Amino acid sequence: MEFYPEGHRIETTQNRLRTASLFALAEAAKSQDILEGKAVVCDAAHNLIVELGEGLRGIIPREEGALGIREGATRDIAIISRVNKPVCFVVTGFETRDGAVMPVLSRRAAQQRCSDEWLCRLAPGDVIDARITHLEPFGAFADIGCGIASLLPIDAISISRISHPRDRFSVGQKIRAVVRARDSEGRIALSHKELLGTWLENAAAFSPGETVAGIIRSVEPYGIFIELAPNLAGLAEPKGTVQCGQAASVYIKSLIPSRMKVKLILIEGFSSPAFPMPFSYFDPGAHIDRWRYSPPDCEKVIESVF
Length: 306
What we know:
This protein is mostly beta strands. The protein contains five helices and 17 strands. The strands form four sheets. A five-stranded antiparallel β-sheet has the order 3-2-1-4-5. The two termini are 27 Å apart.
């Protein structure tokens, strides 16, 4: 069994077949397959009603809505916030409501399996798939399997500093992430910047003499920091009135690997805000032990050790 962020299975052929009829759901109950459906209602008792096959709906009782609900360690918002979104579950039984048979489902059981069979095996440095679930000023939360959330602190999102995670991510976005650490309670923290390339890898896409697009990330008395890529920013001299978050066009004066410096000239800052800069991953494989951002001959060392 492979475990994925919620939403991965819902449109697959196998999931559609396994949720298409009461007979198929009964077979899934025997095999305890993890399936997905769309939560369409959270009733007054905080039970989730889940849309399955055509004309079929199932129910996730409140205590089965997420790990920790039964014990009081997880708030009911973890259930309420799933409405109009995919939810994973295993089929635990059937009950009759208003003369109709309704499958009884458990999201908690699916999450427990994910925790026991997948998340407990993860070690710092492992590279995994995740999906952004919500954004806070201090970081992004990402689903790392069956709706189990993990924190990606803002300082671990990219080398180029951002004012808010929304500068880099959007809710629902699929990302890759690195397991940063696991605390005493088993909660996993993530990192992301190690997948966006080193200084040299990013700088290789630019050349002195070019005029390129950028995003203004910081305005200081001594200069303006402008992002060229999520893991590469340069400094331009102060010019006019510009604001953080604006798009800009910049001329590249020089690239200095030994000092990790990119010298820029700000051509123009635009009044409209910039869209999040697209990013691509530099494939590190399935695991990273050590990642060094700095060029080999640079005195300043920026690295991650897992």
